[in-house]
């Protein structure tokens, strides 16, 4: 009898055309020589000092269906009207992990993506150029989990109620998680982070 992998089923509201992940992946174009930089135990990684110690993660990251749901935004006054967001199904306590941000790690710029999170940016010591950097980012544009639906607070709330936090993911790589901030998130409230002023500045046209 076939065994169904329920972890792999996307949560309700998942959009067609986006691959649902329960673990992040490497892009086929990911420069394999950079892989040790993603592992915080790596000796020469500047990343290791940046990443907070994290409890051992399960192999896959299920959707926290008891905490949140994916919601279609139907209020015309909402700046992301017609899109999706994340809403709390019950009060989520302050400083609580809600879910991981999963996607595809890459080492090439993805300026066109609105779902791309930088996880590592360090100086390239092998380059003769003064400003040369090594950049690794996690893009959920085509493949990801519900972390990709967290909206920015601007024009929606007075302040973010969540933030992206660096952590070690289930692959042992530097990853990102969505955590509540100091006030938690009330039942029915939308989870909102700050993408940062730079994110919006890069999109002004
Ligand atoms: C990472 S996605 C967030 C999820 C997105 N709403 C969706 O349905 O896929 C980022 C995109 O969401 C929208 N967005 C998020 N926060 C916003 C805000 N405060 N105002 C306007 N648009 C926002 C923008 O279109 C942005 O490019």
From TrEMBL:
Gene3D superfamilies to which the protein is assigned, alphabetical: SET domain (2.170.270.10)
UniProt feature coiled coil, ranges: none
Disordered, as annotated region: 32-63
Composition bias type Low complexity, residue spans: 40-63
Location of the SET domain: 66-196
Source organism (scientific name): Filobasidium floriforme
Name of the protein in its database record: SET domain-containing protein
Pfam families, alphabetized: SET (PF00856)
InterPro entries the UniProt entry points to: SET_dom, SET_dom_sf
Residues in the signal sequence: none
């Amino acid at each position: 009898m076939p065994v169904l992998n329920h972890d792999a089923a996307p949560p309700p509201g998942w959009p067609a055309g986006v691959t649902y992940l329960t673990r992040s992946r490497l892009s086929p174009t990911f420069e394999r020589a950079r892989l040790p930089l993603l592992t915080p135990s790596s000796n020469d990684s500047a990343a290791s000092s940046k990443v907070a110690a994290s409890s051992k993660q399960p192999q896959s990251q299920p959707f926290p269906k008891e905490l949140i749901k994916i919601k279609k935004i139907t209020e015309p006054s909402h700046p992301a009207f017609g899109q999706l967001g994340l809403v709390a199904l019950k009060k989520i306590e302050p400083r609580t992990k809600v879910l991981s941000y999963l996607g595809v790690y890459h080492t090439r710029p993805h300026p066109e993506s609105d779902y791309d999170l930088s996880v590592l940016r360090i100086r390239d010591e092998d380059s003769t150029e003064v400003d040369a950097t090594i950049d690794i980012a996690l893009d959920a544009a085509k493949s990801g989990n519900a972390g990709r639906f967290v909206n920015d607070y601007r024009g929606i709330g007075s302040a973010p109620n969540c933030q992206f936090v660096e952590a070690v993911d289930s692959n042992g790589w530097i990853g990102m998680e969505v955590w509540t901030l100091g006030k938690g998130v009330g039942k029915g409230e939308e989870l909102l982070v700050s993408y940062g002023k730079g994110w919006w500045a890069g999109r002004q046209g």
